[in-house]
Amino acid sequence: MQNQLIIFDTTMRDGEQSPGAAMTREEKVRIAKQLERLRVDVIEAGFAAASPGDFEAIRAVAESVRESTVCSLARANENDIRRAADAVSPAARRRIHTFIATSPIHMQRKLRMTEEQVLEAAVRAVRLCRQFTDDVEFSAEDAVRSEEDFLCRVFEAAIDAGATTINVPDTVGYSVPDRWGSLFKRLLERVPNAGKAIWSTHCHNDLGMAVANSLAAVLNGARQVECTINGLGERAGNASLEEIVMAVKTRADIFPVRTVIDATQIVPASKLVSTITGYPVQPNKAVVGANAFAHESGIHQDGVLKHRETYEIMRAEDVGWGANRLSLGKLSGRNAFKSRLVELGITLHSEEALNAAFARFKELADKKREIFDEDLQALLSDESITPENERFKLVSLVAHSETGEQPFAKLVVSDAGIEAQSEARGAGPVDAAFQAIESLVHSGTQLLLYSVNNITSGTDSQGEVTVRLAKDGRVVNGMGADTDIVVASAKAYLSALNKMGLKSSRMNPQYGEEAPAP
Ligand code: KIV
Ligand code: ZN
Fold it and tell me: How far is the CA of 509 from the centre of ligand 1 (A)?
């Protein structure tokens, strides 16, 4: 359809390239289920050749998603394309997204290839992809800094070779709306077979213009936008899905397109991605920030109460605010608990894991009357840490703070089943708890980020804590949730230490060692 704007979500591929945002297979399936509820057209589930774990995660997504197209990224080489094809093969609808850089700086410095070699590799890659699926996307990495005549030649050849979507990335976030829009206009006029493909825009946010640039492309003929939940992505991130979707919906008078997105699933998707990746959403973030619909000033409040449209251009409930789904209560049984987890895409490894999770749920339900989906997501946010790789576990914690006294924490941590106790004083109870943990584990890590967010509203809400740790160039995020934020903090710290201990040898598709072209 001429006026359908395809929403291509790359949270689990480009988003995953953010430091510490790596997702496990179970986490990806959970996010994919939510993206399906959101009704995104294409889910880019990862880069299959990155590692066996990445391959398995894409395959699991391909097995569990029925409605959306599942896609894997592949560099323009035979090994990557075969891995991608294999990973997406179980999907009802599958796409392979192959790319090669076309800018002089990338071709000379990274690929060490001539224009002709790049063009040939692009054609061979697209042809190989077509052996596995009819849905093939081709991207010219760093299109923004590429010579326009060469870009036109590559795109024309890629379409002739069978690419059905042509993606134009602003890989380094360098463009501005006017330039990006006019580039699309010229490409669509100059590439002779342009009409045989869908044109796509992929913008990074280094100058804060990813969304504006993507929308300029839409005004000039792009019919696919690549974007991520919460704008997650390399460096300053990608164009944010929620802003793109709500811009075209709210300004239907300007944008000649429509999406099939169910906008009421936007806020749940934002919260889930934030919980899983440990990237909190800034309060003043458009659409999904906690203040996006909060009217602080008295004048605004008066205006909004009299007539909502005086200060609001969208309704909070239309994007999923306040739609916290009351999931379960204190009296809910094990079966109700289990089936809600299945609906949320949460898989537990064994009956013991289910029993342990159910016991944790009952404990929470004793403290908190109403349990929402967000509570369950947070409660089980660490389920991907299986008993085999959960080295550190919080057994008990006592924290004390009193005005005029130095806060104090005493805790027991199990290290591979062996319990050890320690205590420390600190600037606050959280600082004391972290020092107590460190005096036991001596991890040598550096704390990069500590943040606390409430999961639902009310003072009985669970606090969700993110801890980002770095060591030897590796960055991991740990999450912990509890109605007691000192306990949540200790859990988050231990979760980050557990992740630090997991082996990781995944490769970044854009900076990894290049393999020979097909
Ligand atoms: O930013 C970029 O160029 C990319 C490509 C791999 C599409 O992410
Ligand atoms: Zn990108």
Answer: 9
pLDDT band, residue 505 (cuts 50/70/90): low
In tens, the pLDDT along 57-68 reads 999 999 999 999
Q: Which long-range contacts (CB under 8 A, 24 or more apart) does 493-497 make?
A: 493/433, 493/434, 493/437, 493/467, 493/469, 494/392, 494/393, 494/394, 494/413, 494/437, 495/382, 495/385, 495/467, 496/445, 496/467, 496/468, 496/469, 497/391, 497/392, 497/437, 497/441, 497/443, 497/445, 497/469
CA-based nearest residue to 20, from 378, 274, 374? 274
Q: Which of 75, 80, 202 has most ligand 1 atoms within 8 Å of CB, for mutation?
A: 202
The predicted model gives 87-112 an average pLDDT of 97
User: For residue 95, what pLDDT band results from cuts at 50, 70 and 90?
Assistant: very high
The residue among 49, 71, 51, 52 whose CA lies nearest residue 61 is: 71
State the greatest distance between any 2 C-alpha atoms of the chain, in Å, as a whole number.
76
Tell which residue, 226, 246, 202, has the closest CA to residue 41: 226
Reply yes or no on whether the pLDDT at 14 is more than 80: yes
Band (418; pLDDT cuts 50, 70, 90): very high
- According to the model, what pLDDT value does residue 324 have? 52
Distance CA 272, CA 269 (A): 5
Average pLDDT score over the chain: 91
Q: What residues are in contact with ligand 1 under a 6 Å CB criterion?
A: 14, 99, 139, 141, 167, 169, 171, 202, 204, 510
Instruction: Yes or no: say if 409 and 506 are a contact pair by the CB < 8 Å rule.
Output: no
Angle between helix 78-88 and 52-64 (nearest 10): 40
**DSSP secondary structure letter of residue 254:** T
Instruction: Please state the atom number of ligand 1 nearest to the C-alpha of residue 510.
Output: 6
By three-state DSSP, how is residue 469 classified? strand
**CA–CA dist 172, 168 (Å, integer):** 12
Any idea which of 38-42, 457-461, 495-499 has the lowest mean pLDDT? 457-461
List CB contacts of 167: < 8 A, sequence separation 6 or more: 97, 99, 137, 138, 139, 140, 200, 201, 202, 224, 226
Q: Which residues surround ligand 2, an ion (CB under 5 A)?
A: 14
The torsion angles phi and psi of 411, rounded to 5 degrees, stand at: -145, 160
Helices (H), 307-459: 334-343, 351-367, 373-379, 429-441
Please give the model's pTM, rounded to 2 decimal places: 0.84
Give the mean model confidence (pLDDT) for residues 305-323.
Answer: 80
Local structure of residue 164 (DSSP, 8 states): S
pLDDT, position 308: 72
Output the CA 352–ligand 1 centroid distance in Å: 42
User: Given this model, what pLDDT does residue 350 score?
Assistant: 82
